[in-house]
Amino acid sequence: MKQVVSTAKRIEGTPVPPGDKSISHRAALLNSIASGTATVSHFCEGDDRRAMLRCLKGLGVNIKRIASPDGDPSSDRFVVQGHGPYGLHEPDDVLDAGNSATTMRLVAGLLAAQPFMSVISGDSSLRSRPMDRITRPLIAMGATIMGRGQDTLAPLSIRGGDLKAIEYKLPVASAQLKSCLLIAGLHAKGETIIHEPGASRDHTERMMRAMGADVTIKRRTVTVRHSALSPMDVYVPGDISGAAFWLVLGACHPNASIRIRRVGMNPTRAGVVEILKAMGAKIKVENIHEDAGEPSADLVIESSQLEATEISGEIIPRVIDELPILALAACFAKGTTRIKDARELRVKESDRIDATVEGLSALGANIQERTDGMVIVGGNPLTGTEVNSYGDHRIAMTMAIAGLIAKGETTIHGAEAAGASYPRFWDTLDSLLPTGQK
């Protein structure tokens, strides 16, 4: 599908991003192995939600969807009947993680702890993504894992159970890898000790602790011991990665005012707000509160004069998903912005360095590709043209935001990719436009 966007005269509204994907996945998975029933509200939408729920149901978990009376799918509730740590069933078919690397990696940690054989796979894109970062430590814990490419690529065949704890230093700061091992460590004998080279998202350890797990955190070391979980109702705050598109739109558009409601503000995720503030964005954080141990707030953004910056080092794991849209923000900043230490972008749903540079260059940006990032010289006016999403939801949405600020019309090919994480993205975009432009 292709979508055409054109220069917006005014941007104004109050979007509510989808529920945070990372928190949604953990709420569903951890409540599946708790002993009792819990309700997850404002669950993330799109393909990733379907992938996680499909895998959990394939393991025998009873998950009931309660539709919202107003017909808004974002207000649906999901009731999860937990089976306890060892109540899952051997699946009678391959577990399908679709395009969701989070699903594959978190569920793999769960499967490694189960005393049966299972196979987990995904679409062609996910089957090409490296899985050796999880297979190596899970094998060291005692799981038997086989896969393509010398056990580095899906489909992965996993026979688990009887795990022993390990002490492991992560090769990169990765919340997916850390969470995989923490989930396996819940079932392992002894203390599973994980050392991180840098800060990464901490949703798993936050939620585990809130559900009663024996988890300790000391600087960049997380330790988990064999634990049973208690069920916990969770209201999932809005996804900061989804909110990032509206933040950049509001900051870069010359006539904009946007309030984004109830956005997750976990310190390990809010790097995009820190970077935009450092660039001079007029962002206000209001109505701060907590949902199940996760902070959230309303974010108000207005048209801003941005200054270039460098995005590198320890903040990269905290903004890895937001780097394409931050590259667009850099196009409107005074000076030269450098994005470094972001080689991980090469192995996302697309090569996001290549896709971002190609798309923004086509629109007229002064942007150069580097092995581990990009260099962007701000100030070049953007002009509408035809661009491609490369099947990547974050590239599709980045190009859409660019098209609202560029002169003329921009056609995004493969625009349906946005639905992977933000099914109502195009409707929300329309809601921010003047009446005559919708």
Describe this structure in words.
The protein is an alpha/beta fold and 438 residues long. It folds into 2 domains: 2-18 and 237-437, UDP-n-acetylglucosamine1-carboxyvinyl-transferase, Chain (Alpha-beta prism); 21-235, UDP-n-acetylglucosamine1-carboxyvinyl-transferase, Chain, CATH 3.65.10.10. Helices cover 31% and strands 26% of the residues. It contains 15 helices and 25 strands. It has helices at residues 21-32, 47-58, 101-111, 124-127, 132-140, 148-151, 175-185, 203-210, 240-252, 271-278, 316-319, 323-331, 352-362, 393-405, 425-431; strands spanning 2-6, 11-13, 37-41, 62-66, 77-81, 95-96, 117-121, 144-147, 153-159, 167-169, 191-195, 215-218, 221-225, 234-235, 256-264, 282-291, 294-302, 306-307, 310-311, 333-334, 336-339, 366-370, 373-377, 386-388, 409-413. The strands form 7 sheets. It has a 4-stranded mixed sheet with strand order 2-15-17-16. Strands 4-5-3-14 form a 4-stranded mixed sheet, with helices on one face. The chain has a 4-stranded mixed sheet with strand order 6-7-9-8. Helix 1 packs parallel to helix 3 (101-111) and helix 13 packs parallel to helix 14 (393-405).
Keywords for this entry:
single chain; 438 residues; alpha/beta; UDP-n-acetylglucosamine1-carboxyvinyl-transferase, Chain; 2 domains; 4-stranded mixed β-sheet; 25 strands; 31% helix
